Amino acid sequence: MNRTNVTATMNMDLIEDNPYLLLTPGPLSTSKRVKAAMLKDWCTWDDDYNRIVQDIRGRLVQLATKETSLYSSVLMQGSGSFCVESVIGSVIPPHGKLLVMANGAYGQRMAQMARMLNIPLVLLDNGEVAPPDLGQLEQLLLKETDITHVAVVHCETTTGMLNPIKGVGVIAKKYNKTYIVDAMSSFGGIPMDIAELQIDFLISSANKCIQGVPGFGFIIAKIDEMKKCAGWARSHSLDLYDQWDKMENYNGKWRFTSPTHVVRAFYEALKELADEGGIIARHNRYKANQRVLVRGMKMLGFETLLPEPLQSPIITSFLYPESEAFQFQTLYEKLKRRGFVIYPGKITNANTFRIGNIGEVQVEDMIRLVDAIQQETFWT
Questions:
Q1: What is the tens place of the pLDDT at every residue in 112-151?
Q2: Residues paired with 101 in a beta bridge
Q3: Buried b (16+ CB within 10 A) or exposed e, 344-372
Q4: What is the pTM of this model?
Q5: DSSP assignments along 139-200, one per residue
């Protein structure tokens, strides 16, 4: 066997010998089936590949709503934040004004994008551990009548909070505002109908609850709203309307080089989701993971940051134990050696760490994790 073949064999061994389970809000652990889909090369001009793109677009709309004739989807290269910026920079007209409801890092990120793009902004900041204030939202819309768009994050993974997107939508539409929802960490893992929720633009990513791998995201948009956006984009590469128009009129063709392997993995992940029983079945698995995790952690003396009514099944924030001996980095390294990767905290006013419940993760994995943490209680 020559050196090239030896190296290839070693690399394949590393792929097969997955060193740890990712307990994060994405990227996340994927199945062998999804990984295997990336072992074939694809041409971006090939009709077979473009048919896959079109099938993906149709499947996404079917997952999002029963009112499939009202919506379309578009795929966009880059991370989820690229897709958020594509929407913020493309769907607000030159004289528009954005209201962002923020209660964590990702709402704040939307606001920062608007500032960088010189879009007039109203920021309703409710802090990091409180849900959006719907009363304040209505007061602002009454007061600042030039607001044209309202944006909110569905699952704010800064804390794991699930925000009231139905209530926000009711108020936004009462005042005839275009409604944007960052459902990055929730779409595919929490049942929703975006027509019923009155969402105009929903944003998510390949490497979240659909359980694909990083490389692109997607926007599911009301067709009538998308058609209004021609010529509004503040970026050439992130022009949402132009990307959508190209895919619509050229059988799934992307404007620029697409992440072909990632797209093929995502297509397999969509089929895997259907085989699991769809979004409801996946949601039930995530909820079971989260319940078992929290029950086990509380038995070990850990407390959750959020009260249960505000908690999503996506990721959970835990407070540091009351011991000066506790060091998150030490726990992180010990758990990594045992085959688990968890997440540091992200909020400013409390010491926390986070554990994700999504991806190719089962209840049995949560039980093993809690057992591993119990065995590593070096701080007691």
A1: 999 999 999 999 999 999 999 999 999 999 999 999 999 9
A2: 124, 152
A3: ebbbeeeebbbbbbbbbbeeebbeebbeb
A4: 0.94
A5: HHHHH-TT--EEEEESEETTTTEEP-HHHHHHHHHHTT-EEEEE-TTTTTTS---TTTTT-S
